[in-house]
Amino acid sequence: MVLVTGATGLLGSHLVLHLLENNESVRAIYRNPTAIDKTKSLFTLYDKEYLFDKIEWVQADITEIPSLEIAFQNIDSVYHCAALVSFDPNDEKLLRKTNIEGTANVVNFCLDYHIKKLCHVSSIAALGNLKEHENIFTEETEWNPEKFHSDYAISKYGAEMEIWRGQQEGLQVVIINPGVILGPGFWKNGSGLIFTKVKNGLSFYTKGATGFIVVNDVVKIMTQLMKSEIVGERFIAVTKTISFENVLNAIANALKVRPPSIYVKPWVTEILWRIDWIVSTILWRKIKLSKSIARSLHIFDSISNEKVKTALNYKFQDIEEYCIEIGTYWKK
């Protein structure tokens, strides 16, 4: 039986669906009962409701060790998708607890229960820092602790350290570092919020760029890596490096709305994140535009996907074409 953490998120839900379509027995972890409805809605979106009842749900929290006891019983392999994604500096402690301590707990249980293989979902945020003579991020890009990193990036890098510790203690592991994952069904958070904002008339864009990938490609790469003999490796999972402007235009085209037309320069976002910090401090609300996000909007990160293409002979789905496909699910 396969165990999936984070099964109520965009990636976890798609992973569970894919595993069930391929006749795998799946046990999925959830924290809040209402969160299961998100996964069920996704199955309905794909007209796969008949598969939903095959999921064996277990209420557990990766940061609460006692709750994981039942979840790991009779499990052969584990997909660790659960993580907190936040760029609010006020969430530093929660990020470390969830992403680092939570991953450490998963690794320890995998070791204790003699799990055959663990696939950990990391992020391109954990890749490291380019040196002066480098111009493209790869799996070998070194992490420089003296450089600025968001709390989220630090927590994902720390989580990877726990995975490598597990490997040293005898656990077979593989790590995947996805870029921004695009997929339907989760319109109120994560990348799904981009579709909602564009549909509602987003006017602004920046000219930064990063790696994007289709959710189904992430799922297929994960499952292929788990079925392979590859262990002790990490793989970047991005279709290509694409500008935020082009992604927003593709989404606008798919949703049949006007694309963002006002270019926001770097000095503007520098002012905006400071204003947002002041307002959030006064009103005691979560930060909407952090310093790390504001600056990343103008950075062109060129990211290589050569390693995974070579290892799996993998061909990625086109981002622009997939945005049109997501548009059809938006209508549903």
UniProtKB/TrEMBL annotation:
GO molecular function terms noted in the UniProt entry: aldehyde dehydrogenase (NAD+) activity
Database matches in Gene3D superfamilies: NAD(P)-binding Rossmann-like Domain
Domain of life, per lineage: Bacteria
Signal peptide residues on this chain, from the entry's feature table: none
GO cellular component: cytoplasm
Domain spans labelled NAD-dependent epimerase/dehydratase: 2-228
Stated name of the protein: NAD-dependent epimerase
Source species: Flavobacterium psychrotolerans
